[in-house]
Amino acid sequence: MSGAALGLEIVFVFFLALFLLHRYGDFKKQHRLVIIATLLAWYLCFLIVFILPLDVSTTIYNRCKLAVNSSPAESNGSYVTLAPSKQKCFKPWSYIPDGIMPIFWRVVYWTSQFLTWILLPFMQSYARSGGFSITGKIKTALIENAIYYGTYLLIFGAFLIYVAVNPNFNLQWNQLQTIGIAAANTWGLFLLVLLLGYGLVEIPRSHWNGAKRGYLLMKTYFKAAKLMTEKADAEENLEDIMEEVRKVSESIKYNHPLRKCVDTILKKCPTEYQERMGRNMDDYEDFDERQNSYPSEKSLAKLHKQVIYSVQRHRRTQVQWQILLEQAFYLEDVAKNESSATRQFVHTFHSQEPENKIIQYFYTPTVEWYWECLLRPWFYRVLAVVLATFSVIVVWSECTFFSTKPVLSLFAVFIQLAERTYNYIYIEMACFLTIFFLSICVYSTVFRIRVFNYYYLASHHQTDAYSLLFSGMLFCRLTPPLCLNFLGLTHMDATISHKDTQPTAYTSIMGSMRVLSFIADGFYIYYPMLVVILCIATYFSLGTRCLNLLGFQQFMGDSEMTSDLIDEGKELIRREKRKRQRQEEGENRRREWKERYGNRDDSTRSRAVHTDQKESSFSETNASRPLSKYTRSNGRTERDRIELLQDAEPLDFNADSVNDDPLESDSGR
């Protein structure tokens, strides 16, 4: 089993990252380099989280071997026995041979740092560029990142000059490398505590509120009102951009040197706009530089960038609106079915996507009713209590992990108890659950936050390339300090435990933080305590209230603006529901007509064809008789059949407005 666990986790994490990227990205429309770079960044970060527990168990076994070698011992197969106490050091099932983990961590860490500081920022500018050639996009990306790269080079150069001039410093290359790692981890830890403080409170609270049907429905109405405003704004913005594209397309003719650029812009436009602009074009009219003023290539590149952004935003709002409608209809169905006497879940609308037969066989309407109306609320409440308990343990350990005598960090207590008995399975499970919960709190916040329309991770393949690359940058910058914080909570980091023991392979590539004592003994220890303040601020929704005061509408139960948006969203959902009901009724009537009169229409059509043949043969013998009457009657029958099939949808009306008096109705007409 040596190395098998490492190989299995490498494969599993790859498919996990691929699944998440497929959910948020679009493999068909987005550039392959964007997909590959984002997948590599996500994969490396998730891999660090999953492999670190194996590093901990291997380190504990190596410490046991060092303790055995320093005292009289007897070797016996897969374990080592101490002579005085007869203590056994069993080899863990997931043991990784010496020399593999340092190389593995070094490759993973430096690859992720190369991605987050050099490659991904460059690809962000490349993806947002409106250039029409690869050379133009690369040039734009280099210009935009010149300030970004120049700032870091200036700081690093000033630091090197200071070290070279000052005789008190005698730093080697390894120490300079450690200083660079410490600087990157310090920036990541600063952001990590902010995201962790939000996730520790918001994740348990969201699951607790998930058990409240009324709360979820009201929040869905609120989202519908906000999304409708964003959807209307996206449509208006797209119309304005398309109008500019139309003017440019009409001014730049077929033989203009920039016509290729215009054709590239037109390919990015929606299909209906392309057809509309194609009908109004006159490609046979030559251009005249003396009479018209034509846009430059730089202005066309800017327009190209605006077209890509507006089309992506319009498509995203359209898809999100349909998803939100399905969610609102389903929550309304759950509210109606809670009082059902038959205990069978009844849907207002049938699912538009074909259901899996296996799921449909086991997940019957009765099972769905018990799950949605009875079991699911209690499951969410129990899960929220468990998550809240984990959050309390994390907050307590973040505030006390620097204490070694006595050991106050609960995670360190759990690991040390298991280390005494060398229960490696328990050690790995405890480490995995701890770092997995920390990762969920941090990564879920990255998926939830939204910076206006510049950074937004939208599911159902609606995330743009810029947001995907930015998320990869955040993951690569947050994961190394997250792992160091985890090792500090469990006292596996010698800097925290103050013990002269063998460090983990992950800690060894980071170097000794004693080079910068004010960071190792100050910032790394006391800054995580701020998570308490952030948790309190998140619990009382201070950030939400501040955004609401600044004019950004947030869901708050005690706000008049929230109540108005809920009412507006409820009316929008009701309107869309009536619209879909009319569509389904029209489709049902058409289906009934086809089922009822389909055979009759076929027989009528065959009789009409037979009659036409007779009439044509009769006309050959007697050409003097007119056939216009038969033709008119046959055409009228065909028109009547078509009108019956093309049934119009009913209009909305109010029952109170219907007038039963025939005299008044006649006079009104």
Could you give a short description of this structure?
The protein is mainly alpha-helical. The protein has helices at residues 4-24, 32-69, 100-128, 134-165, 173-209, 213-251, 259-268, 271-279, 297-337, 357-362, 365-400, 410-421, 424-448, 465-489, 494-497, 505-510, 517-526, 531-539, 542-549, 560-621, 628-645, 662-668; strands spanning 73-76, 79-82, 88-90, 450-451, 455-456.
Note down, in words, how this protein is organized.
This protein is an all-alpha fold and 669 residues long. Helix content is 72%, strand content 2%. It has a domain at 2-68 and 89-166 and 188-207 and 356-510 and 527-538. The protein is built from 22 helices and five strands. The strands form two sheets. A three-stranded antiparallel β-sheet has the order 1-2-3, covered by helices on one side. Strands 4-5 form a two-stranded antiparallel ribbon. The model is unreliable at 73-86 and 618-669 (pLDDT under 50).
- Tell me, briefly, the overall form: globular
Low-confidence stretches: 73-86, 618-669
Structural class: mainly alpha
Total beta-strand segments? 5
What's the end-to-end separation, in Å? 89 Å
| Strand content bin | under 5%
* Main sheet makeup: 3 strands, antiparallel
Mean pLDDT metric: 81
Global Rg:
34 Å
Estimated helix fraction: over 70%
Q: What series of H and E elements makes up the topology?
A: HHEEEHHHHHHHHHHHEEHHHHHHHHH
**How many alpha or pi helices?**
22
